[in-house]
Amino acid sequence: MFSLQLVSCKQQEKEMGLPNIVFLLVDDLGYMDLGCYGSTFYETPHIDRLAGEGMLFTEAYAAAAVCSPTRASILTGKYPSRVNITDWIPGSDPQDKPLLGADDLDELPHEEVTLAEYLKDLGYMNGFIGKWHLGGKGFLPQTQGFDINIGGHAAGQPASYFYPYKNDRKFWDVPGLEGGKEGEYLTDRLTDEAISFMDSNKEDPFFLYFCYYNVHTPIQAKDSLIGKYQKKLGDGYESPEDEADHDAFTKISQDNPTYAAMVHSVDESVGRIMDYLKEIGEEDNTIIIFTSDNGGLTTLGTAGRAPTSVRPLRAGKGWLYEGGIKVPAMLKFPGKIPAGSNSSSPIISMDYFPTIAEMIGEDIDSDNLDGIGLTKAFEQKKIVSRNLYWHFPHYHGSKNRPVSAVRSGNYKLMHWHEDDKLELYNLSIDPSERMDMSEKLILKRDSLKLLLENWKTENNASMPTVNPKYK
After folding, report:
1. For residue 179, what are the contacts with CB-CB under 8 A and spacing of at least 6?
2. Backbone angles phi, psi at 80, to 5 degrees
3. What is the three-class DSSP state of 393?
4. Is residue 34 scored above 80 in pLDDT?
5. Which end of the chain is more exposed for a tag (fewer CB within 10 A), N or C?
6. List of domains in the chain
7. Where do the H-state alpha helices sit in 288-337?
8. Are strands 411-416 and 422-426 parallel, antiparallel or unpaired?
9. pLDDT digits (tens, 9 = 90+) for 79-115
10. Sign of torsion, CA 318 309 386 363?
11. Are 249 and 299 in contact (CB under 8 A)?
12. What backbone phi and psi angles, to 5 degrees, belong to 149?
């Protein structure tokens, strides 16, 4: 465990005026799934308001194309490869493919210092609400710096979005939500719990980490909201056919009323939290961060099953094309972050830890982190130029194959491990990644491949291995 250098103590916290922190992480929310990012079908007025009151990032990335690695990255400020959580937990690598998925962990190691532990040492009360998916018994939020845990356990999706949030499989049953009423919707209940946590701790600085189960499968929503979006589609509407890509099929239109209703429920939740902070006089003393853990669920092995689209981006969750890793992101801190501002600086999940440290004015041993603070962006300055890396040494149910990638400036290289194939894209002119330039810009391709290989070596990245039983 490395030591984080702190400069304050609990007795000083009130005098220092440490701000509250509300981190809102939505599951599987795609880059194009909000009004402020261009959706015309989904209605998100409250999240759009949040963007208008803070800074919206147009080049924000998740650290991985699936959930658990990104969640580990947010809490540690490190690349998933350094934590050795590179797949969703527990993963499902097949045994009949040319490669065997890399070995990785099924829980966040206690040796890692989490954002919650860092803030707890500063005197914060830490509340975890919602989806955890970083380990079960012995590795739950209470063991990682959180004072309370409501709804978080080993599973990565709920058994049901309606009370009692259970089904026959048991493993997916959401814990700690007894006493509900028939018809109660999970997002509404978790929002109640989040507000209750803030209300109980409003006299002290608090850290609320609210990890929505929405909009992950199962695709379930309130009937009243489904009807609203069904009406918006109109009678006789027919969805366009999916687009074939590799061995998968990608949805090209946003037209699923149930998914739209799930997004709508998240938006209502965000509105309630913002209104509550204003009601108790803490709006100007609260940092709000809003983002997603990976791209939208747009691409699957069977046509007609994916619930959303992130076009013009390519593919979605499970893939390292832009649709799988580019996500919405916005930050609000009145007086420190200009309202209605935008930034095109590329950012990534592990940046939030050091950014929070910068915003609350605390020291941190940043040499042990892979992320960087973003406060320069808040001053309308470019943040330090750096390369961004992704490593997904696994197969995925979306039909993705083991792959790694690097973005350097406007160029992005992808390296497929099965056949050693390389793809090179200039994102400034080809954000849809349709024009592979790997055979035209050979020097650029080879230099980026070397960067990627060196990074994997330096980070001791787990690699897939040849499957001796493959025929």
Report:
1. none
2. -55, -35
3. coil
4. yes
5. C
6. 13-381 (3.40.720.10)
7. 322-325
8. antiparallel
9. 999 999 999 999 988 999 999 999 999 999 999 999 9
10. negative
11. yes
12. -140, 120
